[in-house]
Each structure stands twice: as C-alpha cells, then as structure tokens.
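== Sequence entry ==
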Amino acid sequence: MSEPISSIVESVRVILEKAPPELSADLVEEGIVLVGGGSLLRGIDALLAEETGLPVRVADDALTAVALGTGKFLNEIQNLRKLGVKRNRY
C-alpha cells in the first residue's frame, strides 16, 4: 500500500502548490476534508496532516459524501445552463 499512498500524498502536494491564494487561505483556516473510500484508510488523515502541515479530517459519512457532492454539482450545472454558461466548460 505504500506506493499508492505515496502517490496520493504527492498528488495532494502538487494540488496545494497550484492552489490560488484565496483557496490556500481557506485551507489553512478550515483544513482538508477527506471523502470517499480512500479516506477510510487507517491513518491517511494523520499522514496528510503531517505532510502538508494542514488540519485534515475525514468527513462524517465519507462514502456517501462523494455521491451527495456529485449530485449537488450536477444540480449547479443545471442552474448554470439556465444562466447561459456554456456546457463545454464542464
């Protein structure tokens, strides 16, 4: 498991380096919330906190959070289309 976990940690680092300043400020203040099956790996939250220096926690219902978030995003696409935002942006 060390290779996939190392890949996850490295991906998080790359994303954080590319994050705009306003998002970085939010992450420092609010931390990272992990969702999905991978977030249930024992100790992944502590490892990411150690590696990033940011607070990290696992969502209360990490498995359904992905589905719920996707549903909310899809609803937003519908609203954006009504406002005239072009589909090819998604």
Notes: Helices lie at 2-18, 21-30, 44-52, 62-82. The beta strands are 32-34, 56-58. The domain at 2-89 is CATH 3.30.420.40 (Nucleotidyltransferase; domain 5). The chain has four helices and two strands.
